[in-house]
Each structure stands twice: as C-alpha cells, then as structure tokens.
Amino acid sequence: MNSTNFYNTQHSPIGAFASFTLGAKGAKGGFGLELAKPADQNVFIGLEDPSDSHFSCLPFFDVESDESIRFDVEGGKRATKSSLRMFPDSSIRRTLLPGSDLWEAGDLTFMIHSPVVPAPEPGKSDPEVLRQAYVPSLPVEVTVDNRESKKPRRFFFGFQGSDPYRGLRRMDETAGFVGVANGSLFGVASDSPGVVSAQGFSVEEILSEADPFNYGFLIGSVGLLIATIPAQKKATINFAACFYRGGNATSGLESRYHYTRHFRSLEAVAEYTFDHFSVLKSRGSKFEKSFASAKLTPARRFMLSQAIHSYYASTELLEVGGSPMWIVNEGEYRMINTFDLTVDQLFFEMKLNPWTVRNELDWFVKRYSYTDKVVFPGGSKEHPGGLSFTHDMGVANHISARGRSVYEKAGLHGCFSHMTHEELVNWIICGLVYEKQTGDSHWLEVNLPVFQKTLTSLLNRDHPDPDLRNGVMALDSSRCAGGSEITTYDSLDVSLGQARNNLYLAVKCWGCYVGLASMFERAGDATGAETCRKQALRAAMTVAASADEHGLLPAILNENVPSRIIPAIEGLIIPYALGLKSALSEKGEYGRLIKALKRHLVAVLKPGICLFPDGAWKISSTSDNSWLSKIYLCQFVAENILKCVPTPAMDLADERHADWLLREENLYWAWSDQMLSGIAKGSKYYPRGVTGILWLSGSSSHSRKKIEMHKP
C-alpha cells in the first residue's frame, strides 16, 4: 500500500453539503460549500522556527502572487524574501480515522474533528440534540510544544479567499471572538486567549506588520489567525471551521438548510462551537471504538475512513414546507439522491440513522414515482408496466419536477437512458431492509399497497404472459422510446450496462422476490407471498441453468455475450440483510443458485478474467472500469455469505484498491468510485464508498485465514 500522507480528505459537518478539504500538496483543498470539487484555495498552517525568523508550514499552498501590483501599478513587484518554508515530508506524520485527521510535524500538532454520529430526526428529537448533530462547523485543535524554546513563537492558520463574489472580512467586528470569513458563507474563528485576526496581500506581509492597525487591511485576500506561544510553554488553541448558507437553499422547490432553524449566522455557528467544543470534538468517539475493535487491515481502515469522510461531505438536510428532506448529493455530479447510490449507502444509513432511509423512500413515492408501459426489445406494442422511480431528484441544489430525473433521456441505448427496472428494485430493497431492521409496522401498513404495486411492476417486466415468466427482466420501459434501459453501471459496456437479461439484476430480482415473500407473509398477503416464492424459484433456476461447463455464468442471459462479471453475487446481500439466512444455504431451496454463484466467483477471480495482473478486482472481464463501492460490497458477500476467498489473497487486493485512491492522478479527489485501470475517470469526490461499512460486521481480517477455500 502506498505510504504517502499527502492525499485529500473531506472534513464535513452533517447535512451541510460543505467540506474543509485538506491533504494534497499545494492549493488543492480549502473551504467549499455545495461544490463539485475541492475549492483549490491556499491553506496556511505554520509555526515559527525556534532558531530563526522562518516559519515551517504544512504543504497546503502554492507560491502566492503579489496582489499589490493590481493596485500599485507603477510600483512593480516588490522584492521580498520569503520567510515560509515547508516541513520536510519525512517529518510529517498523519493519522486518519473516520472522525478525525491528525497532522504532526516538529512541535506542531493540527487535528480536525469530524462528526460520525447518528443524524437525529427533525421533529422527533430534542432541539439541543439537533443542534449538536447539525451545527455546520468542525472543531480544530492545534497544540504547540514550545517547552524547549527560550523565545516565544507564533503559529498561524488561515486561507486565501478565492470567491469571485465575496471578499474576506474579519469576524472580530461582528462577534466576541476573532476570525476571518469569506463573506457570510464560511470562515475560521477562535476564542482562545491572545489569538488575533489579520488580512493582507500575503502571509509574509501580515507576519511582518509592525503595527497591528494594519491587520484590518480588508482588500487583502489572505486571512490569518495568529497565536503567540510563550517561551517554555505548551499551548492548545481551539478553532472553529464554520459554514453557513442562509435563506432559500434550492430552486424548483423552495427549502432551507435545517441548521438555519437553530443558527442565525456564521457568527452564531462559531459561538455555539466554542461553547460546546469538548462535546462536539468527541461526537464520533463511540463509532471510532467500534471501528477500532473491528481490527481491519490497514488498507481497509484507510479506505473506509476516506469513504465516510466523503459521504458526509455530500449530505444535506433541508426543510421543505416544514418537513425534512434528507439528501446525499452525488459527489462531483451533485445529483440529488441518485437512487442507485441510495441503495448502496443503505447499509451505512441503517447502522447510524435509519430514519433517513425512510425519508428518502417517502420522497421517492410522493414526488419521484411514475407508472409506465413496457415493450419487448425491437418491438412497438406496449404491455402493462407499472410503478417505478426516477434515477434522482435533481442536481446542484435544483430540485427537479415531479416524476422527472435530471439524468434520464429517451431514445438511448447507453449512458443517460432510463434506469426504470434498476430503481424499482432499489426501492424494494431499501423498503424491505428498512422495515425488517426497524420493525416500523406503521410505515409498512401505509406502504403495503406500494409494495404490492412494485410486485406487479416486477412481474410485468418479466413477461406479460404469466406462464412464460422466468424471474428475469425482459422488457424495457416505454419511457425509453425505442431505446433500452441501463443499470447503475451506466458507463460500462453491455456486460453491466444493459439492464435487460442482466445477470447482476437477475440475482437482485431473486433477492427482492425472496424478501417480498417473507414480508407479504408477515403482512398477511398469502397470495403475494406465494407469487414471490414462485418467481424467486424461477429466477434461481434461470440463473443456475445458464452456467457453462466451467461454472461460468454469462453477464447477459440468453444473448450470447461473452463477458463475465463479479457483481453476479451482489444480490445475495438482500436476504442476508433481511436475516433470511436459509435462503443462502447450499442445502436450501435455492441451493442450486448459491452453488452456481460460488463456483462462478471462483472461476472469474483469475488474472485475465476478473482480476487485474496486480491482484486488484476487475468487475467485468470486458471492461477496465472497476467500481470500488461495488468491490467492497462483493468482497463482503464473498467473505461472509459464500465463505469463499479465492487467490490471490484478499489482503493483496485491498492493498491494490487502496493504492488506486493514493495514485498521484487520484489523490486530489479524496474518495472516488469509477477507476479505469486504477485511474479515477468518473464518480470522483464521491459518497458511495460507505458500502465498506459492511466490513465492520463481517469476518475481520485476522479471521480470514479460517475461511474455507473452494475450488471449481
């Protein structure tokens, strides 16, 4: 595993769609609000050297331009000798956890605290609980050990503004503490004694000012908070990195950020942070204890930590007409509640805050559902279709029209076509898991008719003639208008991109039928339960019967497509999450399917098929585009359901996957999903990697050797 410390990580409050991104060298991070990428700001973190007048800095800025030239046009560039130098790479240590990021260099420690806590439900939680969870700020702790020095030393923390619409300002003028802010949107503040704020054209100019009056030079784009640590003393300084978006937050449907109910301004956010600093910085301690006890390999610890940070950076809690709307934005694409991400983020949200899953499902039903017709490929005759759901709810804080996504278009056979069947299956999966794991009987009572409609829709997409059904999707939505449906793997080739007769979707359909049968039986719908059992058996037999003499299953059933795929096994997670372990037994009624999938997995996890030469997983034999979130999910299925970990060792694969994130081309984007031969080509700055949360509840790394090795 690559040993570099210099990769970007997103640090974010919950539900604020904001990120203090830091870690890559240069002006590659900074403070971003509702952005699709890092803010690309200079971030200044430095400590005066004990032996001379230089300052050693963490390497998060580029050489500053002399802004004074824009004003003093005849004065020319002023000759200044820089007092800033970088800490040597070898002297910088970094410890990243899901809820913290610690940097140590020389006598300096710099620690950012991020919340990894259950997101409480508005309207059903105490206001103070809501404030503590959703305050849009991050506690930052800095410790300077000056005990070995006989002179006082200065420390500074700040940034260079880059907003074309708002300049920097000093918060001192509007609050009882010091700070520098970009307008009313974000800033850094401190209430520690002796800290001062300053603005100027450059860090060097500010640090060389002889008269503190000049700290108020507001046309300067560099803002610093400066603390002086006495000789032979050790001091800790508290900072608050704050964000705030007041007023209407969205178009298409008016809303506001939930936190504006509790905080009226950026200053109010900072003040609350200082008053509750110790509580806020320890919010993630419970989660981090469970994280530590899981004994994950270093590669998995790193990947899951990165993924959790990036997930929270995409979260957004809005109020629409007084009702909460939970949103997970789609990373660099900023699409709102992309449903084929929601289903994979399900496991993380169910572990921490199941109400968010219910909220997403309810919004899909009441605003982002539709009823269509279906057609056979190449045909024009329409047959009854049924209920399904859109790909998303909008983009870049624009909430789309009722029943419309921003992504799906008609008349296409690839990327940007409709995902009607995929999203139908995803609503069923999320609904089943939410209901079973929470026991929310009221929600099931209200939504039982929805589940019944989804079953009808599934059946109609199999075949209009009940006697000719095989449990697998065979018809496309009429919304495709002559095109064909795709899956969440929209940019892959036909092996995973085409929805119709897709092996990946076929096994997910099987899992849905198994789960629906159990749910309908508990709900007293015997007819629905029996129909689902028959369909589950049909799907299982269809898939198992498609295996060739080597145990390989075709990526597309009955269409002579030579591709082989790992996500054939993904659908097994559905009965597992529902506690239906008997459905996963090789000796049970679906035993033939389980055996076929196990044999297939062993057969494809070989170089030249679904392994890259270095041992990394390749989700399709005919594409070099491999998605980390899906790899994590399939790893869990392989280890904990199929009990099958073929060579090369999973540890080696994990190290290669971690190396993808740490490649020079990728580390700017924090956690990314789509890797084309290890290079992030899409789905960057992405929330979906929290599928790795499954690792915490599965076979830990130290017990992996006990798992049986199966051979075809």
The CATH topology assignment of the largest domain is: Glycosyltransferase
Q: What's the total helix number?
A: 17
Strand order of the largest sheet: 7-8-9-10-17-14-13-12
Number of beta-strand segments: 28
Average pLDDT, all residues = 94
- Helix vs. strand class: alpha+beta
Q: Distance N terminus to C terminus?
A: 30 Å
SSE blueprint and pairings:
Layout (H helix, E strand, L loop, with lengths): L8 E3 L6 E5 L7 E4 L9 E6 L6 E3 L26 E3 L5 E6 L2 E6 L2 E6 L13 H8 L2 E9 L7 E8 L7 E3 L7 E5 L3 E5 L5 E5 L2 H5 L14 E8 L4 E10 L12 E2 L8 H10 L1 H5 L3 H9 L4 H16 L1 E6 L2 E6 L10 H14 L2 H13 L1 E7 L7 E7 L4 E2 L2 E2 L20 H19 L2 H22 L13 E2 L16 H4 L5 H21 L2 H20 L27 H5 L13 H14 L20 E3 H13 L9 H13 L11 E3 L2 E4 L30
Parallel strand pairs: 5-6
Antiparallel strand pairs: 1-2, 2-3, 4-5, 4-11, 7-8, 8-9, 9-10, 10-17, 11-16, 12-13, 13-14, 14-17, 15-16, 18-19, 19-20, 21-22, 21-25, 23-24, 26-27, 27-28
Helix pairs in contact: 6-17, 7-8, 7-9, 8-9, 9-10, 9-12, 10-12, 12-13, 13-15
Overall description:
The protein has 712 residues and is α+β, with helices and mostly antiparallel strands. The protein has two domains: 9-269, Beta-galactosidase, Chain A, domain 5 (Distorted Sandwich); 294-706, Glycosyltransferase (Alpha/alpha barrel). 30% of the residues lie in helices and 20% in strands. The protein contains 17 helices and 28 strands. The strands form seven sheets. The chain has an eight-stranded antiparallel β-sheet. It has a six-stranded mixed β-sheet with strand order 6-5-4-11-16-15. A three-stranded antiparallel β-sheet has the order 1-2-3. α9 (420-438) runs antiparallel to α10 and α13 packs parallel to α15 (591-604). Residues 700-712 have low confidence and may be disordered.
